[in-house]
Amino acid sequence: MPIEDAVEVEVGIATLEDIEIVEEPRPTPSGKEKHQDNAAADQIPCRHVPASATMDHKQRRYLCFPAGHGKTASELLSWCPALLKQHPNLQPLYKEGRNQPYIPVSTDSFYATLVSEGFFGLVMECPGEGGTHPVIIIHGVATHININLIEMPAGFHGLKRRMVGQMPRPQLLGVVTGKVPSEVHLLGLGRRHRERYTPEPDLCRHCSRWGHKEWRCQSAPRCRYCAGPHKSVQCLDKIKEGTKIPPRCSNCGGNHNAHSTLCTVRPQPQRESATDEACVLLGSTSPDQHLGDEALLLGC
């Protein structure tokens, strides 16, 4: 049937003040007409959304679960509420992607931990043009330095203190979104060596064995400090109070802690230094702080 008085419509965006809304009575559509309307609506492309409406989405990033994580859908559904309970500022939402599930999260301080050390055994991945964002480890930053006083440099998404065995270490972890720097210069502290970071091998906090996390452990407790048949937190509290605990490895029997690099059965992470010749300056708001060589703690 020919269409009379065809009207050309220019697609665009108008403000509410320019639109006069007139409601006219419409007959109730039948079930067939509703189905046709829904099918037509699915074919309408999404129009441009003003920047003000997408401001919140720019402050959120998408993280994918690592390949071969081995968890079922129900386990992932339990993992996400646990993350939300401990870190509500992330506002994670579990999404069923077409190829793999993912979560959008807000970019707060725990974001760097998700992509470097992970949460409950899952180290998340950042989808991007060049794959995941690299994480670098910055050496020689003493534990008495407050990293909250260090300004975030361009190209870095987050900085956090590296922890080993629930103890702070003289290193920082940083998520790099641009070029990987060849060195890091801390204003007032000097240049610091850095390298590409690979997450440390999993050491169970319950049985002190390598290869799994505490939440998956079904063994009896073993102390990582003295190899005794008790939880490690008992010796850790004594060490913090100043009590000297003779170190004993629960895995190889050596005179060191279970998480020590001296352990002969400890899996060695593969790390490689970056090659980009770029130098990043980190501004510190407290330049009068002095950086000294920190002694290794607890036999590490």
The first-to-last residue Cα distance is: 85 Å
- Secondary-structure element sequence? HHEHEHEEEEEEHE
Strand content: 15-25%
What's the number of structural domains? 3
Strands in their spatial order, largest beta sheet: 4-5-3-8
Tally of helical segments: 5
Low-confidence stretches: 1-26, 38-58, 273-300
- Mind summarizing the main beta sheet? 4 strands, antiparallel
Mean pLDDT: 66
Give the total of beta strands: 9
| Radius of gyration, whole Å | 27 Å
User: What gross morphology would you assign?
Assistant: globular
The residue fraction in helices comes out at: 10-25%
| Alpha-beta content class | alpha+beta
Region (Disordered): 21-41
Protein name: Nucleic-acid-binding protein from transposon X-element
Biased composition (Basic and acidic residues): 23-37
Task: Give the arrangement of secondary structure elements.
Blueprint: H1 31-42, H2 55-58, E1 60-64, H3 73-86, E2 102-106, H4 111-116, E3 135-139, E4 156-164, E5 167-176, E6 183-186, E7 190-192, E8 194-196, H5 232-240, E9 279-282
Parallel strand pairs: 6-9
Antiparallel strand pairs: 1-2, 3-5, 3-8, 4-5, 6-7
What distinguishing features does this structure have?
300 residues, alpha+beta, 3 domains, four-stranded antiparallel beta sheet, three-stranded mixed beta sheet, 5 helices, 9 strands, disordered C terminus, Nucleic-acid-binding protein from transposon X-element
Architecture overview:
The protein folds into three domains: 59-132; 133-200 and 269-292, no CATH class; 202-268, no CATH class. It is α+β, with helices and mostly antiparallel strands and 300 residues long. It is globular and about 45 Å long. It contains five helices and nine strands. 15% of the residues lie in helices and 16% in strands. Residues 21-41 are annotated as: Disordered. This is Nucleic-acid-binding protein from transposon X-element. It comes from Portunus trituberculatus. Residues 23-37 have a biased composition (Basic and acidic residues).
